[in-house]
Amino acid sequence: MARVVVDVMLKPEILDPQGQAVQRALPRLGFTGISDVRQGKRFELEVEGPVDEAALARIHDLAESFLANTVIEDFTVKVEEVAGAAE
Amino acid sequence: MTARIGVVTFPGSLDDRDTRRAITLAGAEPVALWHKDKDLGQVDAVVLPGGFSYGDYLRAGAISRFSPVMESVIEQAKAGLPVLGICNGFQVLTEAHLLPGGMLGNDHLHFICRDQKLRVENAGTAWTGDYRQGQEIHIPLKNMDGRYVADEYTLDKLEAEGRVVFRYLDLNPNGSLRDIAGITNEAGNVVGLMPHPEHAVEPLIGTGRTDGLPFFTSILKKLVNA
Predict the structure, then answer these.
(1) pLDDT in tens, B42-55
(2) A2-13+40-80 has which fold?
(3) pLDDT tens digit sequence for B118-131
(4) Is B87 a catalytic residue?
(5) What is the rounded CA–CA span in Å between residue B156 and residue B154?
(6) Complex confidence, ipTM
(7) Is the pTM higher than 0.80?
(8) At residue A23, what are phi and psi to the nearest 5 degrees?
(9) Which residues of B touch A15 (CB under 8 A)?
C-alpha cells in the first residue's frame, strides 16, 4: 500500500476569505510576522498495488477532473510513503 | 400537447418541488427526474434546482456533475436542450463546464438569505424571453457558495457577448465579480443564476411578487412556438 497526497489550493489571484479570517486572528493569539494565510484541501489516497507511472497518471487525471476544479484551483500530486511495495 | 419540463432531484436537492410547482403554475408539465436516471424521458427542457446536492462536500455541485443523469443533460445541452440551473443547479453547470467560471464561498463567509434586486441584462435567452431588457426584478436569494468568479479574459468575453444575463443591483450579496448573478452559454439555451425565481411565483409567498414566473412562461412559450 502506498499513499498519494493531492493538495488543492485556490489559484493565487482568487480571494480566499477563509484564509484571511485565519490570518486576521493571528495577532490576537500572539502570532506576529505572518503576512498572509491561504487555506487549501489535502486528499490522502491509499493506493492498492504499486504506484508506478501509470497509477500516478490515473491519479493525476482524477485530481484534474474531480478533486480540483482547475477553473479556480491548482493542485499537486505527490507520493508520501511506500511500504511493502515492489521495487 | 403541452411542454414537458424535467426537474432533477439529487440527494440533497431542496427546491425541486417548488420548481415543479412553478412549472405547473406557468402551464407546463413538470417531470420528476432522479439523479440515477440515465434517460431524460423525452423532456423538452431541464431544470437543475437549488439545494445542497451530495452535501456540497467536495465543492458545491462537484459530485452531482458526475451523476448518471448529468451525462444525458451535458450531452443534450450541447445539442441545444434548454437547461436552467438555479443556485446549486448553477454550481452544477459550472462544474460541468456547460457555463464558464466557477462558484466559491461568499466573501463574507456567511449563509445569506434576502430579497434580492436584479437587472435583466439579456432578455434573449431561452429562459428570459418574457422579461424586458433592463427590467428590474426582486426574487429571493439564499446561498453559502454564491461568489461567481472567472478570469478577466472570460469576464470580458461574457460582457462583450451579452452573456451576463442578470446583475445584482443595490447590493452585491456574495462578492461575485462584476456583480454577476447569472450567465448563459454561447447558444443561449443554458442559463444559470444564484437567486431563486421558483420562490417568487405566487403573491402569497416569498417576496409577495411574482417576478420569478416569467422564467417558466418564457421557456413554455419558446417550446410551444418552436
Answers:
(1) 999 999 999 999 99
(2) Mth169; Chain: A , (3.30.1280)
(3) 999 999 999 999 99
(4) yes
(5) 5
(6) 0.88
(7) yes
(8) -60, -40
(9) 107, 175
